[in-house]
Amino acid sequence: MKQRCHWAGNDPLYQLYHDLEWGVPMHDDRKLFEMLNLEGAQAGLSWITILRKRDNYRKAFDNFDPKKILKYDASKIKQLLANAGIVRNKLKISSVMTNAEAFLRVQKEFGSFDTYIWQFAGGKPIINKRHSIKDIPATTPESDAMSKDLKKRGFKFVGSTICYAYMQACGMVNDHEVKCFRYTVAYPNR
């Protein structure tokens, strides 16, 4: 039996996410934008709740295409607020539109969102040696810096805890427990 990080538990969807996605370095701008918004949607909830709704989020938000999201009007917002397949929180829904605008500004300034966001990890994954879930912090100086800069640029739902979860999910940090089979698979050149 594979040894996984403790948090992956027994839920098959959670295990699949752990085994194939979490902690794998991500460099696709659209996926980075999607994940930033999904992490924001998680605020106050569990990640499994958002993971179970992820396909609904993709449909509801035009596969997280920021240019399409910028064109949303009051009718679209009303439709999103009625969509039981996503978290129907007005602030979280409107934050996706705010984030789309900020995201496009960052892309224009840096050439890609990838170039911008990875600077907070020094351009490559930070390899940690976590022995248990208790060793994993909620925030780090890097997530603090990311949060501060994202907020300055107009992004919403980007507190330091959300930013650190984002860094973990997008592979900017390796927080797989050292005993987890993904610890060396996700980062073979550690």
Would you kindly provide a written description of the structure presented here, covering whatever features stand out?
This protein is an all-alpha fold and 190 residues long. It has a single domain (11-185), classed as Hypothetical protein, domain 2 (Endonuclease III, domain 1), CATH 1.10.340.30. Helices cover 54% and strands 2% of the residues. The chain is built from ten helices and two strands. It has helices spanning 12-20, 29-42, 47-60, 66-69, 74-81, 90-110, 113-118, 141-152, 160-169, 182-185; strands spanning 126-127, 173-174. It has a two-stranded parallel ribbon with strand order 1-2. The longest helix has 21 residues, at 90-110. The radius of gyration is 16 Å and the shape is globular. The chain starts with 11 loop residues before the first helix and ends in a 5-residue tail after the last helix. The relative contact order is 0.18. The model has no long low-confidence stretch (mean pLDDT 95).
Shape: globular
What is the CATH class name? Mainly Alpha
Helix count equals 10
- Fourth-tier CATH superfamily name: Hypothetical protein, domain 2
Number of strands: 2
**How confident is the prediction overall: mean pLDDT?**
95
CATH 2nd-level architecture:
Orthogonal Bundle
Taking Cα atoms only, what radius of gyration do you get, to the nearest Å?
16 Å
Biggest beta sheet attributes: 2 strands, parallel
- Whole-number count of domains: 1
Terminal CA distance reads 24 Å
Low-confidence stretches: none
Q: Which structural category fits the helices and strands?
A: mainly alpha
Biggest sheet, spatial arrangement of strands: 1-2
Looking at the structure, the CATH topology is Endonuclease III, domain 1
Strand content: under 5%
Order of helices and strands: HHHHHHHEHHEH
Q: State the share of residues found in helices, binned by percent.
A: 40-55%
